Amino acid sequence: MSTGAGRGPRGLPVAGPSVTFRAALRLVRLDGRAFAAMIGLNALAAAAGLVAPWLLGRIVDEVVAGGGAAVVDRLALAILGFAVAQLLLVRWAGYVGHRFGERTLARIREEFTDRTLALPARVAERAGTGDLLTRGTTDVALVGATLRDAGPEVLIAAVQALFILGAVFALDPLLGACGVVGLLGIWFAARWYLRRAPGAYLAEGDANSALAQQLADTARGARTVEALGLQERRIAACRVAIEECRRTRTRTLFLRSVLFPAIDVSYVVPVAGVLLLGGVLEARGAVSVGAVVAAAVYLRQLSQPLDTILQRLEQLQSSGASFARVEGLAPAAHGHVPPPASPGPADDRIEVRDVRFAYDDGGDVLRGVDLTVRPGERLAVVGPSGAGKTTLGRLLAGLDAPRTGSVTVGRVPVAGLDAERLRRHVVLVTQEHHVFLGTVRDNLRIAAPDATDAELRAALAVVGADRAEWLPDGLDTDLGHGAHRPDGARAQQLALARVVLADPHTLILDEATALLDPGTARHTERALASVLEGRTVIAVAHRLQTAHDADRVAVMEGGRITELGTHDELVAAGGAYAALWRSWHGGGGPAPAP
User: Fold this and answer.
1) For 80-96, how does the pLDDT look when each residue is reduced to its tens digit (9 = 90+)?
2) What's the pLDDT tens digit per position in 192-232?
3) Helix or strand holding residue 96 (H, E)
4) Virtual torsion, Cα 446, 449, 452, 457, nearest 10 deg
């Protein structure tokens, strides 16, 4: 089924117009009473604003007819009263509109956060941090500003414009028709703009995301860039991204430079037309001077709401593109969730059958992998760099789906499990860990929200992270910017403590202890092995001692499993593993990662 979504940079979806429109209607329905109150108050404010020009026309007619000062004073006082009423109604409508906007913005932020967290890991990785960061900050903020400010203002202005045109037609249909014809220039200019603006603003948003990604990648890899002498290459890439931002920004500036002057000229045309036609009609006795004056004042007054609408048109187009980018995460986040009735795994047995996998349009990284991992088994995966070990780990953890073949747990595809069920079965731990802002307790309870402090301390003790020197305040030790920042080894131990608390039946360690010193790593691996007794452990081995302790060892070369057996069997076979073992063991200690 089509979602009406396009694609942003790196394949991250952008919602189509129909999807965006339905999403906007859904948000309105969620706070329908406030929206209705906002419309009603705006209508009353617009009606109050219509009285003053009509009363001004009455004053002109009374003066022409020889009326006294008392009549003029009463009419002037009435004008003042309606002006005050309009002011109060506008303020009230603005207050209601702002509250509606803030509540709706809160819903958008919450939905964006939920959808981002629900994104499949492969989609988030392909999108990059730049695009997600731009959507979650710049785009959401622009949508919020529109809901809080531009939306209510445009709604008020639209109601006022409709009421004003209705009042001109009520005075005299010919004068009303003359005013509408005079406004056609605005219609043509706006139509020209609206045909070009959506694509231009989407392109500008994509360019901003691409630039943010380039800057983030450069900053994150600053040491690598410096070490490899890649400064000029990175500067060139950033310049290309900046130039694209400049080009797309210039395009939207050009659209505005055409729209606004055309609008300014178009404001004068209907007023001049009504005065000319009104003079002719008044000379023939068809209308009074007061009616002509009131119609001219109405049309001159029309410039204010139209100006508000047209000046906010840019923000509406820009925020519409931003809302499409924000709403575009919905199909990406929820399009991969299996039906609720899908069966759960029958057991803990993991089977890989004739699996082939390629990243994007590249060649196959895995080439016909077959593997069975028995429940409770400890399996080590070794091999040279680029052999496909990490890719196999990702498929076993359900982060990626095979191009062909199958990866199942209990005869159910791993990649088809929803996130909650997947976490109960398989957990992947890599070298890369994130420490969240908050306390140690907050970071650990991500894995087990109901865990007691005693359980949290026990998990830290298991991985050797319970020493007082890096936990000065115990579980209340604050982590993050401006607080206690754990180094890579401590962050890794914190992640392993989360695994202990999550208690899955299968644990995949992708060089998860690589940042720890050999003694700490050995202690952590043994501690985990004792805690996870009876559970399946698949370790992408960084040190061959890990393979020595495993029940079986799988050797990967060129995207295939070329050897599979126990440590002793493979050493006796004299193949690739035996050569690796002799090289590592003969050197008297740890060698570079195999």
Assistant:
1) 888 888 889 888 888 88
2) 888 888 788 888 888 888 888 888 888 878 877 777 777 88
3) helix 69-118
4) -10
CA dihedral defined by 415, 418, 424, 426, rounded to 10 degrees?
20
CA–CA gap between residue 215 and residue 128 (Å, rounded): 12
Distance, CA of 395 to chain centre? 25
Q: Which residues have C-beta within 8 Å of that of residue 245, sequence separation ≥ 6?
A: 204, 207, 208, 211
Query: What whole-number distance in Å separates Cα of residue 22 and Cα of residue 30?
Result: 12
In one-letter notation, the amino acid at residue 455 is E
**Which pLDDT score, from 0 to 100, does residue 37 have?**
87
Q: Which residue has the tokens 């095979």?
A: 402
Nearest Cα to Cα of residue 308 among 149, 470, 76, 134 = 149
Q: State CA 94 to chain mean position distance.
A: 28
Cα gap 422→508, rounded to integer Å: 13
If we measure between CA atoms, which residue out of 502, 490, 494 comes closest to residue 451?
502
Which sign does the torsion angle of CA 126, 129, 130, 133 carry?
positive
Spatial distance between the Cα atoms of 138 and 54, rounded to a whole number of angstroms = 45
Distance of CA 563 to the CA centre of its chain: 44
For residues 147-176, give the mean pLDDT.
Answer: 78
pLDDT tens per residue across span 30-40: 888 888 888 78
pLDDT in tens, 336-347: 444 444 567 777
DSSP string, 482-527: TSB---HHHHHHHHHHHHHHH--SEEEEESTTTTS-HHHHHHHHHH
- The 8-class DSSP code of residue 373 comes to E
Among candidate residues 130, 46, 60, 126, the one with its CA nearest the CA of residue 89: 46
What are the structural domain ranges in the chain? Answer: 17-189+267-332, 350-586
Residue 339: what pLDDT?
44
Average pLDDT over residues 556-568: 91
For residue 331 the two structure tokens come to 């199909």
At residue 186 the predicted structure's pLDDT band, cuts being 50, 70 and 90, is confident
**Unique residue bearing structure tokens 């991500």:** 446
| % pLDDT > 70, the chain | 83
User: Which residues have CB under 8 Å from 135's CB, separation 6+?
Assistant: 112, 209, 322, 325, 326, 329
φ/ψ of residue 545, rounded to 5: -60, -35
Residue 370 scores a pLDDT above 90:
yes
Architecture of domain 17-189+267-332: Up-down Bundle (1.20)
Q: Name the CATH superfamily for 350-586.
A: P-loop containing nucleotide triphosphate hydrolases (3.40.50.300)
Average pLDDT value over all residues in the chain: 79
Amino acid at 186: I
Report the pLDDT value the prediction gives residue 369, as an integer from 0 to 100: 92
Q: What is the model's pTM? A: 0.55
Sheet holding 404-409, edge to edge: 364-373, 350-358, 404-409, 412-413
Residue 7 reports pLDDT greater than 60: no
Q: How far apart are CA 280 and CA 282, in angstroms?
A: 6
* Closest of 283, 76, 163 to residue 275, by C-alpha: 283
The encoded tokens of residue 223 equal 């040491």
Name the one residue in this structure whose structure tokens are 């004053």.
59
Q: Which two tokens stand for residue 594?
A: 């195999």
